[in-house]
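[09:14] KT: can someone run the structure on this one? pasting the chain below
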Amino acid sequence: GLCTELTYFDVDGNLCYNSDGVAGYIQEYDENGYATKIICIDDNKQTSTTNEGWSKQVWVNDSVGNTLEIWLYDKNDKLVETANGYAGAKMKYDKYGNQTEWICYGANQEPCLRSDNTSGYIAEYNEQGFVVKLTNVDNEIKPCIDIYGIVIWKASAKDVISERFYKRVWLGESRQTNN
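[09:31] RB: done, structure tokens below
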């Protein structure tokens, strides 16, 4: 089944609050079983607010469950910007379901800069589906420097177990091989 409510308890079994400042979450799903909403709750199961300032997350998914948008709302159902400077995000995917873009938006639903001085990133993948490059982008979706002085993150994607799985399953190699 799907988890529709999550609450936190201490070692003595008493309801407690997590590091986000809430006692739990209520989660809603669409007819396909994809999460569409998370509502923060207090110890009386009333809507509460996280330390970042949001009370609800609303997700928009495509037909295969990729999250296309996430929006953060306060208790009055108004978009709210977190301490990181954004009220939501939009994502794009390639034909394999790899997330190729994550862009943050302000309460005005325009691209915005987060606290790290970026609006998000553009991702590139190798043929095995491993992320090999992330480019930080600004609110005009152009490459930018984050607060750490980084524009592009490059990764060497050599994962032996995943590479074996890729070769065997996707390329049809025999399960008898040792590579």
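[09:33] KT: thanks! The beta strands are 5-7, 24-29, 35-41, 56-61, 67-73, 88-93, 99-105, 120-125, 131-137, 152-154.
[09:34] RB: yep, looked fine to me
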